[in-house]
Amino acid sequence: MQSERAGADGPDVVAVAAEEPAGDTVEQQPGPGMGRRVVRVKRKSGKATGALSRPKGGSDSGSKSISRNANKGQYDEEGSFVPPLPDSAESPDRDEKDSEETEESPELHQFREVSEVRFPGEVGPLGGHRLCKIQCVRGNWVGPLCAMNEHEQDEHGQLKFEPLYKRCVVDHIPPHLLLSYKNVSVTLGWDLPHGHTLQARCRDLGLYKLLGESKVLCSNGLWAPKMPSCVPTTLLTNYSDDSPPSIRIKVGVGSAAYEPSGVLAVLPTSTIHLDCMYPRRRGSPEWTWTGWFRQYLTGWSAVPEEKASRYRLTIKDIQNQDSGTYTCASPRGLTNSIVIIVAVSQCAGLSEPNPPLSLRLEGIKLGQRALYRCPLGYMLQGEANATCLASGNWSSPTPTCHPIQCPPLFLEDPHLSLVELNTSAWGRAVFRCAWGYRLSGPPGLECEPNGHWSGPIPRCRAIQCPQPLVPLNGRIDGTSGLTMYGQRRYAVGALVTFSCTEGHLLVGEASIVCTETGFWSHPPPFCKAQCPYPGDPPNGLIAPLKFHYDPGDYLTVQCRPGFVEHGANGGPPERPRCTPEGDWSGPVPQCRSYEEI
């Protein structure tokens, strides 16, 4: 099959290759804005089927251009058939006119009998290649239709084409259910074409019982039947009487593999132990099987730690005739089954993968595994272990190693910024906050080997200083704080000034600033009581002489010669004392002359 597409200035042309004897080659004459085209067509009953080509832009007048054939009628630009005119075979003038119209639209004349266009298509989640086509039906293209199997033909020896129905989307996977498509694991979001089948099995063979069909077909957008579910068995339900018995599988000699269908494929001459898990004190379960080849040894395990709960069926030197279904039924009639097929298969050898991926191969026989590993700093994309299946295929494709990258960091905090960022394994992200803010959380994160950051992104919190103590007999002036939770908080740079009430002296810094440490630049001052300088009495001096006097200070008066210290009431003088309130205990004694006494 061949396909051609015009350039930017020409029409679109799709050609169909000849399948039977090679058809004719029609040379398309160039029209306005078109290059020269050669289209291969095939003949059916003397009629050509090929490709329809139209120039871009259409005709000048907008009316339908019609190509005519005197005996077969006409086709307009929309592909509609126009019956032949009664006099089309008799009027030479009309034939000449028809010839002129045909020359004006040679494409429509050459390809007026196109019936279908074939092309290669990619169908399905794995991009399978199939031959597809569209058909011209009454002037409209119908399709696409695709060949489901290019080797399957109808009674006329032609390929069988089927319409593409709606695809099915895997929007829900029941718990513990594994889905696969052609040995590829299926996850949420997959979609399959109509007619394709998913294989279903439970995650742990024997520990869950599949409730439903193991094959699910996509039928025009719907799964038929519905997705199966996995029922937990006795080992997972603490040996509940309402649960089917669990079956544990042991391979004594040889090898076995779990197939995507949930079947246990076993290599001939292997020895298989099937243990029905049920409490011995409640009674004995029963093993049954579908084959008639031989009888099998059943009974409670003789191993001391197993004999209380494992009712065993042993298949020694297994052969093809041992293939079948093995069912364990509890005394209450609840059952669980294992399907065994005996197969001789060998998978293709695996070459050494490209670094950094490493491979350890157990072998290439049924049940043997290929173990893949990635070095530290890389993440394995795909399945780490592939098992050789009965089909001769590995259970999963070769995985790849991708460098571990932690997700990008989105900083929602406007005050937070990154100083360093390395998203590779063991890389670091280092943060800092704007001036006046402090990190709340670790200052840095590490990209761990699992591709996750070592912790959450920190946040920046405003640095705040607590409300300073108001000094006794003093006050705070010029505050610029923020009241929070009933307490006043101060941002970095806030300035606080202090003052004292009358009679008190400020001791310490009169102004303090909130720093980036969350502490004040200086401790709060305090207000110390003080007594003012009282002044010298006439004809005398006070001692000691100071601007301010502390509480407890006493004053002494020294009179000039010829004068003597005299109390206020005429009695002996009392020395004034500075009280804690900043007042003098009494007036300053006066100096009086001896003559007045």
Automatic annotation (TrEMBL):
<feature type="region of interest" description="Disordered">
    <location>
        <begin position="1"/>
        <end position="116"/>
    </location>
</feature>
<dbReference type="InterPro" id="IPR036179">
    <property type="entry name" value="Ig-like_dom_sf"/>
</dbReference>
<feature type="region of interest" description="Disordered">
    <location>
        <begin position="567"/>
        <end position="586"/>
    </location>
</feature>
<feature type="compositionally biased region" description="Low complexity">
    <location>
        <begin position="53"/>
        <end position="68"/>
    </location>
</feature>
<keyword id="KW-0768">Sushi</keyword>
<dbReference type="InterPro" id="IPR050350">
    <property type="entry name" value="Compl-Cell_Adhes-Reg"/>
</dbReference>
<dbReference type="InterPro" id="IPR000436">
    <property type="entry name" value="Sushi_SCR_CCP_dom"/>
</dbReference>
<keyword id="KW-0677">Repeat</keyword>
<dbReference type="InterPro" id="IPR013783">
    <property type="entry name" value="Ig-like_fold"/>
</dbReference>
<dbReference type="InterPro" id="IPR035976">
    <property type="entry name" value="Sushi/SCR/CCP_sf"/>
</dbReference>
<feature type="compositionally biased region" description="Basic residues">
    <location>
        <begin position="37"/>
        <end position="46"/>
    </location>
</feature>
<feature type="domain" description="Ig-like">
    <location>
        <begin position="245"/>
        <end position="345"/>
    </location>
</feature>
<dbReference type="InterPro" id="IPR007110">
    <property type="entry name" value="Ig-like_dom"/>
</dbReference>
<feature type="domain" description="Sushi">
    <location>
        <begin position="530"/>
        <end position="593"/>
    </location>
</feature>
<protein>
    <recommendedName>
        <fullName>Locomotion-related protein Hikaru genki</fullName>
    </recommendedName>
</protein>
<dbReference type="Pfam" id="PF00084">
    <property type="entry name" value="Sushi"/>
</dbReference>
<feature type="domain" description="Sushi">
    <location>
        <begin position="166"/>
        <end position="232"/>
    </location>
</feature>
<feature type="compositionally biased region" description="Basic and acidic residues">
    <location>
        <begin position="106"/>
        <end position="116"/>
    </location>
</feature>
<feature type="domain" description="Sushi">
    <location>
        <begin position="345"/>
        <end position="403"/>
    </location>
</feature>
<keyword id="KW-0325">Glycoprotein</keyword>
<feature type="domain" description="Sushi">
    <location>
        <begin position="463"/>
        <end position="529"/>
    </location>
</feature>
<keyword id="KW-1015">Disulfide bond</keyword>
<dbReference type="InterPro" id="IPR003599">
    <property type="entry name" value="Ig_sub"/>
</dbReference>
<feature type="compositionally biased region" description="Low complexity">
    <location>
        <begin position="8"/>
        <end position="24"/>
    </location>
</feature>
<feature type="disulfide bond">
    <location>
        <begin position="433"/>
        <end position="460"/>
    </location>
</feature>
<feature type="domain" description="Sushi">
    <location>
        <begin position="404"/>
        <end position="462"/>
    </location>
</feature>
<feature type="disulfide bond">
    <location>
        <begin position="500"/>
        <end position="527"/>
    </location>
</feature>
<feature type="disulfide bond">
    <location>
        <begin position="374"/>
        <end position="401"/>
    </location>
</feature>
